[in-house]
Each structure stands twice: as C-alpha cells, then as structure tokens.
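User: Can you predict the 3D structure of NAD(P)-binding protein? Sequence below.
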Amino acid sequence: MSSTSLAGKTILITGASKGIGKATALEFASLGAKVVINYSSDAAPAEDLVKRIGADKAIAIKANVGDIGEIERLVDETVKWGQGKIDVVIANAAIAPNKSLSETTEQDFEAVMNLNVKGPYFLAQKASPHMPPGSTLILLSTSLTNHTPITPNYLLYVTSKGAVEQMTRVLAKDLGRSGINVNAIAPGPTATELFFKGKSEELVKTIAGFNPHNRLGKPEEIARAMAWMVGGGGDWVNGQVLRVNGGMTV
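Assistant: Sure. Here are the predicted structure tokens for NAD(P)-binding protein:
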C-alpha cells in the first residue's frame, strides 16, 4: 500500500460499489481521502461500503452515468459534499457484453456507447471546471484492446474501450492546460464478480493461463496502481494508458 497521504482530497468514483471500483474506494479512503461512491441501481452494496469506510469519509450517490443530466447532478452533489472541488475523478462504470458483430443489436450498441464512452466524455466535461490544478482524471480501458488472442465476442466492448484510449490521449492535451493530468488504467482479467459471471472453471483457468503469472489480477492491485498515479507517482504522467495486467500484454 502506498504511504502517500490523500487527506483533504475529494475522489469521485463511478461504478464504485463493487469490484475494481469498490477496491479503489477502500484504497483511497485508507489514504485519507473523502470518497464519493457512485452506483446505478443497487443501493445496499454502496451503503455497506459507506458504513465500512465511515460516513465522515464516504457518501453514496445514485446516478446513471450514461445520462448527461444524471452526470451533472452527480458532479453538483460531489462538489457540494467536497466543499467546492473534486481532486480526482475515476470513470470506472462500464458494461461488458459478450457480443460479436452478428449478435449486436442497435440497442446493445447504444447501451454500451452511452455508458462506456458518452459517460466518461461528459463526466470529464462537467467535472473538470471544478478540478483545481494538480487534479487527476483516470479513465478505465482494458488490456483486451492490445491482446492478440482476443475472441469475436469482445467486439462491442473493445470498440468502446478503444474510444476511451483515444479520449485519454486528446483530453491530456486539453485538460493538461489547466493542470489536470488525464490517464487511463487498462486492467487485464481481474477477479471480480462481474468477471466470473457466466464463466466455467475451465474457461477461467484458460484466461488465467494467458498471464505469465498464471493467475488473474486482484481488484486491490488495480486500485494500488491508481493510488500510485494520484499520490505523486503520476505527477509527470499524462495522456498514457497503463496496462495493469502482470505481463499478459507486452
């Protein structure tokens, strides 16, 4: 765990009640930050996480971050709770359907693009005016965008994450002028509830075997990479995609 203190910092994490988002909320709270835990539908895990962290350091806010009006409300509530500023924004919320080209409907496409692409885009737009110099915006991609053995069922998901990586490059030029660093974290397969859903034990072992360590990543490992990026290690890192995957892609 990083020893860097984030006391006095306000962190907004979308999709923060489970998986990587939950691990990230716990990591940043352990470093002294105040954490906004965004969730879309299920309040119980978010409220449980607030209790675990402490109501003085965490708040749960329900919002659909694929909707611009909801994004605006989320940002406004965060700014109010964070005493006028947001120091770190982590656009973690996403969906990952298994859809090949022939299986994809227009509804599928719009749902993925709304949450995975439009969401981070307009979250950056609405949040950045409230982010002081030295702030950080972290977008979430995936190491599958750079994984040669990828299978056709990931087409729709990686299409959206490819857009996120391009967004990262250009936003770094834009928001960098205001002293805001913009980077993306691209995890490899990570042991979350979402990852295991619908996968056989044999398939999980096969996916783990793509890694030289022969295992899945842990949500806490992704969270620590983000803490490093925010806690001083990333001061001179801007516009980059950090692939946190144990060497699955090189």
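The chain is about 40% helix and 15% strand. The first helix runs from residue 19 to 30.
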